[in-house]
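Hi L.,

You mentioned the student needs an example of a multi-chain input paired with its predicted structure. This one should do, with 621 residues in total across all chains.
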Amino acid sequence: MKIKLIIGLFLCVCFAQIITPLSMIARREFVLKHGAQYKFKVAPVDPYDAFRGRYVALRFEEDYCLCAKEDKLNSGQQVYALINVDDHGFAKFSGLAVNRPDTGPYIKTRLNYISGDKAYLDIPIDRYYMEESAAPRAEKVYQQHVRSGKEDAYAIIRIQDGMAVIESLYVAGERIESLVDSLSN
Amino acid sequence: MNKVFLRWLYQELPGLVEKGVLSQEAADKIRQFYGQVKNPGRMNVGLVIFGTIGAFLIGLGIILLFAHNWDQLSRLSRAVLSLTPLIIGQLLVLWVLLKRPQSSALKESTATFLSLMVGAAIALISQTYNIHGDAGTFIFTWMLLILPLVYIMQASLPAVIYLIGITAWAGNNWDNPVKAVIFWPLAAVIVPHLIWALKREIYALRAAIVSLVMAVCILSAASFSLGRNWPGLWVVIFPSIFAVIYFTGNWKFNQITTNWQKPLRFIGGIGLFILVFQFTFKYCWQYLGSYTYGVNRDISFIGLLPDYIITLAIIGTAVLLFYDNLKRKNNQVAMFGAVPLLAVVAYFLNMQSTFLPLLIFNLYLFVLSLSRIVAGFRLNNQALLNTGMLMLSVLIIARFFDSDISFIVKGLVFIIVGIGFLTANLVYTRRLGGVK
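Structure written out for the whole complex:
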């Protein structure tokens, strides 16, 4: 009887252990399939994350939006960053909402800090994983590209109901993986 | 008696009977008195250690293999592959539960393997979908998912991983004490396992490791989560925690002789001594108010309430345990554990002047070391005698370095302290010879 109870409990634990990563997969696959596509200008760098192998760290070129003092916002507060697309087809943050907006694209995020009239966001996209040897090469490719005077790196991000998932990273109009490959060859 | 000694004694008995030192009847009575050598849980320590190291290595190997260069696979197959080691771990645990429920070694090693694989699966999926690098959420989810294994498998290594994990999580939230304070209920969940381990195998490695990790984690987490809005309160919080650890270490299991088998008593004692020694210096009290460890944001009273409640509970427990030891006439133990009470008094007196706290702790350390020396002589306990001597010499030397006294006098003090050490040990050894 006791062993049956223990095994029953263990099976419940197994279910929780499987369902947690599965739900992570399912939510992101759903966004990647059904979410709207946006281009965000980024600037990659390459630190080492001991937990998760090598990746290209991303910094959004404009990771803030303007706010008024009357908004009474605090650091760490959950907000909804509204998104607008400019004439060149790049997405930008156009405003903040404390409550979930009814319409329009937005990302659910937190406030990093406020400086003057700018509210800096803790954007939930800060990395792009690559194969171990490719990440430092990608960084080099990008830096060479910047030195030549062009800064046209952007990330393609899918957004659905406030959740954002990065799809790919482009430098000089080409996917970073194929750019690194073509340069290595 | 320690089972190692008991085994030795039982090995010696036939020889002693043969040589006529003991009669057969006396040897039988000794055996009857001490009973069988107990082998709790029939746990083979070697098997547990090697099984667990093996599980660790296999687990880490799998993570490395997967993490390295798997760009060629499609996103979904990578995600599904991430779950494979987790499922293998679960099947192994299930097999042990069904086929080998008696084997502590297998339970321990498979549960450890599964614990690592849960973390690996979440990390690999985070990598596949470039999920935001939030170490806190990652560790928290991982720890909650492995916690039940501690009780289902009666395994201590997952408990150790869990304790280290929640401490790391509290550290990750060091700038948000309202969140970091959740460490305490999370750590409390492991207490029944610790008590079970202590009861079952008082002398075993398992109880020693869990209690050691528990003590270290609690001390680390206290600095992240307690007294954050009350500058200088650390002078009460840390002595209280060390005192609770020290009293718990002295509880019930007095027959254990070595320090590594009694890590709580050892850590508690050393910690209390270091704190008291620090409290005998002026700088400690002079700059007490300015020792704040970095919370600038405004936190409401309600947000700080858990911090206050846990801090008061720890101080209260230390005082109650002190009172309990005093009542049971464990004077040596009680005296050492009196630091929290004195710290409370000193904390409030310090608001008037720094002189009074200094006086209290210098006097206390002096009396404490003398009482240990006297008790050492009285009870023929050389360890007690020498720790007392050591404390006294440290105090004397520190005070002489503190003050403007010439080098010659300082040198003489060193010589006198050294002579004191030698004389005390000589007198003790002679007396012991006389007793024999």
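You could point out the following to them. Residues 55 and 129 of chain A are 4 Å apart (CA to CA). Chain A touches chain B through 38 residues (CB under 8 Å).

Best wishes,
N.
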